[in-house]
Amino acid sequence: MFLHRRGVSRPIRASFLVIVTCLLSIYMHVKGREPHMVDRGVYAVTQPLHRVVSDAGRGLRALWLDYLSLVDIRAENKRLEAALRLSRVRGAQLETLVAENTRLRGLLELAEGRKDLRLKALRVTGRSNSHLFRVAALTIEGGDELGIEVGMPVISEGGLVGRITSSDDDQAEVMLLTDPRSAVDIMLERSKARGVLVGMGQSERYSAQLQYLDREARVADGELVLTTGDDERFPRGLPVGRIVLGQSPTTGPFRQAYVIPEVAYGRLEEVFVILGRTGLNASGSRFETGRRTR
Amino acid sequence: MIRYLIIGLLALLSEAFLRSAFAADAWTPPFLILFMVWLGSRGAMYQAVLLAVILGLFADGFAGAPVGIYPLQSLFVVYASSFFTERIQLRGMLHSSLLGFLGGIAALLTLGMLGRGLLGEAQLGSRISDLLVPLTVMTATLAPPMFAVLDRWDGRGSRAVQRSKL
Q1: Which residue of B has its CA nearest to A29?
Q2: Quick check: B75 and A24 CB within 8 A?
Q3: Highest mean pLDDT range out of A42-46, A87-91, A222-226, B98-102?
Q4: What integer pLDDT is reported at residue B123 of this predicted model?
Q5: Which residues pair with residue A225 across a beta bridge?
Q6: CB distance from A57 to chain B under 8 Å?
Q7: Which of A115, A137, A200, B161 sits between 20 and 30 A of B81, alpha carbons compared?
Q8: How large is the ipTM?
């Protein structure tokens, strides 16, 4: 028993003193509702040491949390990379769908604006390119089975594309306006000047020569070129392209000019083949009694 | 005495460091209480009382508590440890673990009594039930290894003193 050891009275006396002092100190603290002189003295002595230790502890904690954060960030990074890849694929799919939607909307608007024509929408399945990667001819899905015949005009959102030159059971070939075998009777939108558009067959650009343009016609550069329908191959009023005026020869009755097609042949995905006429006018509001080209 | 004071301070600083490092308040290893239990079990009571007061003051300063709370707690733990040491008839780890457990209970009792008796609705008193399980588990678990380390350290120190005396 420790109470029976030598000098046992000293610790007990000291303990008693400590207990009384401590209780008094606590009582003073509670009564004064704030740290008293002894409190402040103890805090002043111990706080610097405590601050050092606490800062070290917090530093370690921050280090640990940073490390954990890095581990989490790495895992999250992998997840995000996978999500990003998926998102990119979906984004590309969406872009394709949006582009297709835009094209089809354009085609629909075209069809809505030309109710006088019987149109058949077909997908472009192939392109014949020149050695400078210019489209020389198109192949479209659908042929005889769908009523596609040689000579039928082909249009797209931008305007006249060309015409069918051959047709099989399930596909047909389209000759472009720029083909040297192509000739279209045209007129200019504002000046009403007329001419014949003949393809130039250039391998480096899409263009056609405008022949028989009256020298005296007041033609503006960039004026829209439309079909006249007089050749009975193409319906009237189809946009063809924009005129680019060349240098006029000093002699002769005709002016030199070229036409840049409105249709972007390289980006064509769907086209309309004009199967014939519906008998309605362009807005579809009434029947036409005029002539029919097909 | 100085050596024990340094060990006690190290225990207190370690506890403060771990408390701020891991922010696991209730589950922070109560090294000061365990050191007091160990001191009480050694039987040198005068030394133990002095160390309890000094280290308790440091603990008050660290915690920002009213001065006197931790000295009283340490003192109570020292006496409780001393009381139980000669009454527990167990050996080895079990003995240390039980002493640690009782030391934890004693520490909580002191805080509870002070909390209710002097501080009114004290912040300390309201936390007693929350602290009971973590503190007793920690003291009972950590007592055997910590006592072993302290015993080893104390024995080496004593032998060094004996050698120097010889």
Answers
A1: B66
A2: no
A3: A87-91
A4: 58
A5: A188, A241
A6: yes
A7: B161
A8: 0.78
